[in-house]
Specification:
Elements (H helix, E strand, L loop, with lengths): L1 H24 L6 E9 L14 E10 L6 E8 L2 E9 L7 E5 L7 E9 L6 E9 L6 E4 L10 E11 L2 E2 L4 E8 L6 E7 L5 E8 L3 E7 L2 E2 L3 E3 L4 E6 L4 E2 L4 E8 L5 E8 L2 E9 L5 E6 L5 E7 L8 E2 L4 E4 L2
Parallel strand pairs: 18-25
Antiparallel strand pairs: 1-2, 2-5, 3-4, 3-6, 6-7, 8-9, 9-10, 9-13, 11-12, 11-14, 14-15, 14-16, 17-19, 19-22, 20-21, 20-23, 23-24, 23-25
């Protein structure tokens, strides 16, 4: 009877020990939260268009084994003034995402802190980032070159506005143009800088012009754009014969009354044969009666409006 009681007691103790060991080996997982990659202002300004006096920020968070709802909050303070809470968002934020603080003061630095918690002290995390909301542009410069003697048409005017070397976004930009012979420039277009401080215009230009871009009252250095005339030439016949009259017709673009010169090939050199003024429509006509094999070309010289241009097509004269 004693042996049976001892055996039963040992079995009970062994079972209790094994159960306790199993429970200790498989504890319930605890909630873990982390916040990282908090970025403020221009670092993530491409998330959405940046507006004046606002900072865009983003963050990434993770939560594992959490049963309670996760509450995410973001707080923005002005650097150097810890008591100033510029913005507090604590509802509706996802564990990872992005948002915007508006109505801030230009020229000040800000620090944002993102915190996530499930309501317990042991399950929370935070991270922060600092950025400066730039004020107004102090430098405006062009970023693309323009070939001298460009063809008439759309010319790209691109540049960037900066404040103390930093790109400044959402600033008004105006484009000013003064054609040669005009003393006062006129505003012809307006836009805004993007988050990288860049601006871009397409300007239809038909004559030599002075171009300036202004941001916050600051101007670029004046850029001179020179536009070459475009000249075409044809004859009343596909082939001009010697000792027969023919008419050579020149077309000038942009169309205006301008001096047009006809050159004849004399050996290996071009010699002036005639000059006349084009019509207001940009058309000039020359009557010729060649006595030997030669060729003709048309040239429009530089004037106040445009630079020199020569005809791309040469009319050949054959012997009869």
């Amino acid at each position: 009877m004693k042996r049976l009681l001892v055996a039963s007691t040992c079995a009970a103790i062994l079972a209790s020990t094994l159960g306790a060991g199993a429970a200790a080996a498989d504890p319930a997982p605890s909630c873990a939260i982390s916040i990282s990659n908090v970025r403020l202002a221009d670092a993530m300004a491409h998330v959405q268009p940046k507006t004046a006096n606002s900072l865009v920020f983003s963050w990434m968070g993770t939560a594992t084994h959490c049963t309670n709802p996760i509450v995410v909050s973001a707080e923005l303070r002005q650097v150097g003034d810890p008591s100033s809470v510029e913005g507090l968002i604590n509802s509706g934020l996802d564990l990872s995402g992005s948002t915007v603080f508006d109505a801030l003061s230009a020229g000040h630095s800000y620090i944002v802190a993102v915190t996530a918690t499930d309501g317990t002290v042991s399950a929370s995390a935070s991270s922060s980032s600092t950025s400066t909301l730039r004020g107004v542009a102090d430098t405006v410069q062009f970023t693309n070159g323009i070939k001298a003697g460009a063809r008439p048409g759309s010319i790209q005017i691109a540049g960037v506005a900066t404040d103390s070397g930093y790109p400044i976004g959402a600033r008004p930009v105006t484009l000013w143009v003064a054609p040669f012979g005009t003393a006062v420039a006129k505003q012809v277009a307006s836009s805004s800088t993007d988050f990288a401080g860049a601006f871009n215009f397409w300007l239809h230009v038909t004559s030599n012009s002075r171009v300036t871009v202004k941001v916050d009252g600051v101007s670029t250095p004046t850029r001179i754009i020179t536009i070459a005339y475009r000249v075409s030439v044809r004859a009343t016949a596909a082939t001009i014969r010697t000792k027969r009259p023919a008419i050579i017709i020149a077309g000038v673009s942009p169309s205006r009354r301008v001096l047009v010169s006809l050159y004849r090939l004399n050996g290996k050199k071009w010699a002036i044969a005639a000059r006349t003024y084009s019509s207001a429509a940009g058309v000039a006509k020359f009557s010729v009666r060649p006595t030997r094999k030669t060729a003709y070309r048309v040239v429009v010289p530089t004037d106040i409006h445009n630079t020199t241009a020569a005809a791309a097509v040469v009319v050949s004269v054959r012997a009869r």
